[in-house]
Amino acid sequence: MLETKAAYTLSDFQLLEQLAETIWREHYTPIIGEPQVDYMLAKFNTVKAIESQIKEGSQFYYMLYKSIPAGYMSFKEEGDYMFLSKFYVKKEFRGKKIGKASLKFIMDEAKRLGLKSIYLNVNKFNTASISAYEKLGFIKTKAMVTDIGNGFVMDDYEMKKDLN
Hints:
alpha+beta
């Protein structure tokens, strides 16, 4: 039912860009506003940005639910932990255990690499995602504000899950 596919090709990257456009506009516009969504899509979620992140060591995957693109994720090994940079599921696929199954995939990959924990950042006002991460065993470790340029900041919690 759920299939996780590594993104390697230009068509994969184009699919990721399309998923980002859909998910970000629907989910993040009410949280951070359209100007910041536009900026973050252009800076972090275009084909060119994805290719650059892959060159820097990030791995990208997309999820298919009954063969339909349902979301995408990206993570990167950093020291003895994995940084989960992107983890997004389209609205119509939420509640179908895609997040839980995808997180298991990420945890299995981190364990395979011998890593101790997984970190992520989540917007402080993204209460639904914070709740979902907490249900999956993540805990808030700190609050942080990061300048991302153009007058925009990411106002986030860092969350962590140990892999014992």
